[in-house]
Design goal:
With 203 residues, the protein is mainly alpha-helical. The protein has one domain. The protein is 65% helix and 0% strand. It has 8 helices and no strands. It is elongated and about 55 Å long. The termini are far apart.
């Protein structure tokens, strides 16, 4: 039974992660940038809730506010970047890069504590963490490069990431407590946290 559950979970994780290809985006609007970053805080909170449940501990309440502060700072910087004169874009881009370093550092704290003994639940957490990392990479790729690569932008959007995240989230682990909790934690396709966005591509 455990082997069947493990095989089923692995199939769901592989299918869900297929939608995250190499990223070749060369710029997007402020709303698009926010749509991706706004997924990060809720997604991190979901991971921490699962970890706390499995470990039987209180959820870490300090991490999510830091992550949300990081993403809010990046959103403001990107707005400034879009509105600034060409001569000033270089210095703002440097600030954006530094802000991404801070965000990734704070995410490292999340990933360090996201370790549980149950193998199936750990596989789920690892896959969710992978999608969070992808969301950050998508946002980083939105900053135009001084010399953009001559490649066709890839279709990748916040909606696809959320759909994949939710599929992984509700995949059965065989842990009754986890399987009961996770459907309640699904990310939503509306409101502040998640808004559909296509990064510079026509469907």
């Amino acid at each position: 039974m455990k082997q069947l559950l493990r095989s089923s979970l692995a199939a769901v994780l592989c299918a869900a992660l297929i939608i995250v290809p190499a990223i070749g985006v060369s710029g997007c609007s402020v709303s698009q940038f926010e749509a991706v970053l706004n997924q990060v805080g809720p997604a991190v909170e979901t991971v921490l809730e699962i970890v706390a449940l499995v470990k039987g501990t209180q959820q870490n309440s300090a991490i999510v506010p830091k992550i949300e502060a990081d993403t809010s700072a990046l959103e403001k910087l990107y707005t400034d970047f879009q509105d600034s004169a060409t001569a000033n874009k270089g210095s703002i881009e440097a600030e954006i890069n530094a802000a991404f370093v801070t965000l990734n550092s704070d995410l490292g704290t999340v990933f360090a504590v996201a370790q549980v003994s149950d193998q199936n639940t750990q596989a789920k957490i690892t896959a969710l963490v992978g999608l969070i990392q992808s969301a950050v990479k998508i946002a980083e790729a939105a900053i135009p490069s001084p010399a953009p690569a001559a490649v066709k932008p890839l279709e990748l959007n916040a909606g696809q990431l959320v759909d994949s995240y939710n599929k992984i989230l509700v995949a059965k682990t065989g842990n009754p407590a986890v399987d009961k909790l996770t459907p309640k934690l699904k990310l939503r396709m509306h409101g502040k946290f998640v808004r559909f966005v296509s990064l510079g591509l026509a469907h």
